[in-house]
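[job 0417] fold request received: VOC family protein
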Amino acid sequence: MANETMVPMLPCPSIDEIVEFYTMLGFSRAYYQKVPNPYVSLRREDIRLDFFGIPGFDPEDSYGTCGVLVSDTGALFDSFAAGMRRVHGKLLVSGIPRMTRPRIRKNDGNRTGFTVIDPGGNWVRFMTDDPSPTPADPAATKLTTSLRRAIVMGDSHGKHVRAAEILDAALERDKDTATPAELVESFTYRAELALRAEDFEAAEHALARARAVRLEDTDRERLARVLAELDEMEAGLRTARDR
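[job 0417] inference complete; emitting structure tokens
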């Protein structure tokens, strides 16, 4: 047989909350029922996600997860992020729900991926459908290698405290041998890890260190997305400080 379709069915405490969240990301409701059991089916082009409601379900205890293979993780992330910014005025990077940014995943053949953690605590992992793993960069420095380890720990496993420990040790050890671009990437990710932990002081410190790195124009072009992340995190930190 061929052309089969698999549909993930994930738990949540409220299907209405799920509908609101995924509508923000560009999904539409294909099926909805409240009784006898809460159930909703959501679609966005060829992506289908189904959810069943469990009264009293705690998203923090969820083991719900699935992988979604797409042709362009960057374009899909940008679309999701635009929806989040329209509704919330920012990218949700901490708590539940939240979304990670597209990054190279060492544990997925160095492909680029990002994760949506929805209001049900489900980890919906968006990965490129390229079947060929990307070879690791043989010229990668120790700092980049440690950054990739930290990303696996923080973005794939959700252990942002351990990821921060890995990155802090690497930045201290390798700060004098890393390239300016590697330092900016590492400090930027460190700032995001701090924001996930709501450690605003550590986030501010990492952002300041990233801004202090002198970049050549060629680096600025290559790091355009990373520098935009810096701008957004600085704006979000100012808002958080003002509360």
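[job 0417] notes: The longest helix spans residues 224-242. The helical segments are 15-24, 73-88, 142-156, 160-174, 180-196, 200-212, 217-222, 224-242.
[job 0417] exit 0
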